[in-house]
Amino acid sequence: MPAWAGAGRAGTAGIAMALALSERSLEAMGAHAREAYPEECCGLIVERGGCEEAVRASNTQNELHREDPARFPRTAAVAYTMGPEAAPFLIGSERGELRLLAIYHSHPDREAYFSAEDRRQACGARGEPIYPQAAQIVVSVRNGEVRTVKAFRWDSRARDYLEEPIGPP
Q1: Burial 40-69 (b: 16+ CB within 10 A, else e)
Q2: Higher model confidence: residue 126 or residue 145?
Q3: What is the extent of the structural domain holding 131?
Q4: How many whole angstroms separate alpha carbon 74 and alpha carbon 55?
Q5: Residues 44-68: what's their mean pLDDT?
Q6: Stretch 19-40: mean pLDDT, rounded?
Q7: How far apart are CA 15 and CA 70, in angstroms?
Q8: pLDDT class for 18, splitting at 50, 70, 90?
Q9: Cα–Cα nearest to 103, from 159, 38, 51, 59
Q10: Least C-beta-crowded within 10 Å: which of 33, 87, 106, 141?
């Protein structure tokens, strides 16, 4: 596993299992985060036919901000909106054609934490997760280098996303 993958993997009380991700997926997320820096990257980790795959999505936040800055006040440096290439995978997960393991994005020059904006993105209008089965992964990138990666999973008792360890499959 990449050295940075071990950082920030402290477990959360009440969560015994770790999010099992392959080294290939961790490396793919790290590469995506480095390439997108100083902007946020975003994507999915899916499993199809027993094969885990990292799926890159474009971050359309800058286009949305240009078109309607009042509605989208944040740029891609501090926010993300997944591009349309993610849609077939999200629809496929809803149809049972694949498993959506995680949704990931990066925090350029910030820590790997689950922010209020991240929660807003992950939850619908009622405050419930849109994809409750999927972990939310945040990759911290400083000066173009991945520092830490953390996963968060919805806890229905706490009604919030709690940190979850990441481990090998």
Answers
A1: bbbbbbbbeeeebbbbbbbbbbbebbeeee
A2: 145
A3: 3-57+83-167
A4: 24
A5: 98
A6: 97
A7: 39
A8: confident
A9: 59
A10: 87
Give the pLDDT band (50/70/90) at residue 145.
very high
CATH number at residue 150: 3.40.140.10
> Is 74 within the bounds of a domain?
no
Contacts of 93 (CB under 8 A, 6+ apart): 46, 99, 100, 131, 134
pLDDT value of residue 3: 60
The verdict on residue 72 lying in a domain is: no
Residue 133 has pLDDT above 60, yes or no: yes
Single-letter amino acid code for the residue at 59: N
Q: What is the DSSP letter of 75?
A: -
Residue 46, pLDDT score: 98
Secondary structure in 3-state letters for 1-35: CCHHHHCCCCCCCCCCCCEECCHHHHHHHHHHHHH
Domain for residue 71, yes or no? no
Question: Has residue 52 been placed in a domain?
Answer: yes
| Distance set, CA 138 to CA 6, 56, 88, 157 (Å) | 14, 14, 22, 22
Round to whole Å and give the CA distance between 44 and 93: 11
Overall domain count for the chain: 1
Which letter does DSSP use for residue 43 in this model? E
Report the distance separating Cα 89 and Cα 44, nearest Å.
8
Do 86 and 48 form a contact (C-beta atoms < 8 A)?
no
